From TrEMBL:
Organism listed in the record: Oceanisphaera psychrotolerans
UniProt keyword terms in alphabetical order: Signal
Protein name, as recorded: ABC transporter substrate-binding protein
Keyword Signal: yes
Gene Ontology cellular-component annotations: outer membrane-bounded periplasmic space
Domain of life: Bacteria
Length: 358
């Protein structure tokens, strides 16, 4: 299934400077005098959350909001490094396995409200970890750089294309660096469970000097500027925004399977303002909050027009919904993770340092 220019609705200043981490900070001052500040560590682009946060603030004018934008691995590592002194009231990340590990290791505070208690069991974990959006995982092509070739509709067709015209795609394929991106690691681990095709693709990527990146937006910039021809495993909300700006880009939800992850939020045990964090979580899961997230380019978790609580995406057909379950935890074991990364690196033949794009 080749997606249209705009994805369909179904798919569609630092707080603390650490030596190896960089963050961008956004501050929404309180509309009334107050000493309370809600701190959010987020691996979701601020532009997708700003409308929701502004609306939430209208109902809580005494609350200022500080959002720290990190990638998924940075968010996880920074929170653990800060320990009980972390100022974070809410952690938002699409690295489902890392978020679940934080819960499993005792870092999350249970939260129950009439809204969260109504959620289907598959979109929360022990009332400590809550999904609030879905995220399709797509392959993106610079149509101009494909030349005479049609867009491949499956991983097998993609592999055939790379083998047929390797000179065209050498140095022009990009995907996540799983050593630095938490969501990249999650997607690679899920791909590896779908059969042998992913391993063959990795070897093909490696033989063609694949370029590794930490973020979907970084890969999309390279695709739009013509440095890359193929981007593998990009997050759909960011793809949707790029397709609207760059007509040379085309997105594919592979016919063999399309991974779908969930963006998850948790309230840390150490949260200075857990009540305000719970209020924000409730708003994110409300009909109004879900509509605002959808309008900003994210895919809502719940059907906004449904009279009851109904998931907006069902795990059927070619959609493979990554389950929020303990099955995500084994590859977060230190030794298992080390082995998986070593195997991945060997397959992809990744150089010690990223080479500059051509």
């Amino acid at each position: 299934m080749i997606l249209p220019r705009l994805l369909t609705p179904v798919l569609s200043l630092l707080l603390l400077v650490l030596p190896v981490q960089a963050a961008q900070e956004f501050l929404l001052p309180a509309q009334a005098s107050s000493q309370r500040q809600l701190v959010i560590y987020s691996a979701t682009d601020y532009r997708h959350l700003e409308p929701l946060l502004l609306q939430f603030q209208q109902a809580h004018p005494q609350l200022s909001i500080r959002l720290v934008d990190l990638n998924t691995r940075e968010l996880h590592d920074r929170f653990l490094t800060e320990g009980p002194d972390s100022p974070a009231d809410l952690l938002i990340s699409s690295a489902m396995d890392l978020q679940l590990k934080l819960v499993n290791d005792g870092h999350a505070r249970p939260y129950r409200s009439s809204r969260t208690l109504a959620l289907p069991s598959q979109v929360h974990w022990r009332h400590e970890l809550f999904a609030f959006t879905f995220e399709p995982v797509l392959t993106v092509f610079n149509r101009t750089l494909l030349g005479p070739h049609s867009v491949p509709r499956s991983r097998q067709e993609l592999l055939t294309l790379l083998r047929r015209d390797p000179a065209r795609f050498a140095g022009r394929i990009t995907t996540y660096d799983i050593t630095t991106s938490g969501v990249g690691y999650l997607l690679a681990s899920q791909d590896s469970q779908q059969g042998l095709m992913y391993g063959r693709l990795l070897e093909a990527f490696g033989s063609l000097a694949v370029r590794l990146d930490d973020t979907s937006n970084g890969m999309l910039d390279s695709l739009a500027q013509g440095r890359m021809a193929i981007g593998y495993n990009l997050l759909g909300s960011y793809v949707s925004s790029a397709l609207a700006r760059y007509p040379q880009l085309e997105a594919l939800a592979p016919e063999d399977y399309t991974l779908m992850l969930m963006r998850l939020a948790l309230i840390p045990n150490s949260a200075p303002h857990p009540t305000a964090a719970g209020d924000l979580l409730d708003f994110m899961l409300s009909a109004r909050g879900q509509a605002l997230l959808a309008q900003s380019g994210l895919h809502p978790l719940l059907e906004p027009d449904s009279g009851d609580v109904r998931l907006a995406v069902q795990a059927q057909g070619p959609i493979t919904l990554i389950p929020l379950s303990p099955a995500l935890l084994p590859l977060q074991d230190r030794l298992a993770s080390k082995h998986f990364i070593e195997t991945w690196s060997h397959s992809i033949m990744a150089p010690p340092e990223r080479a500059a794009p051509p």
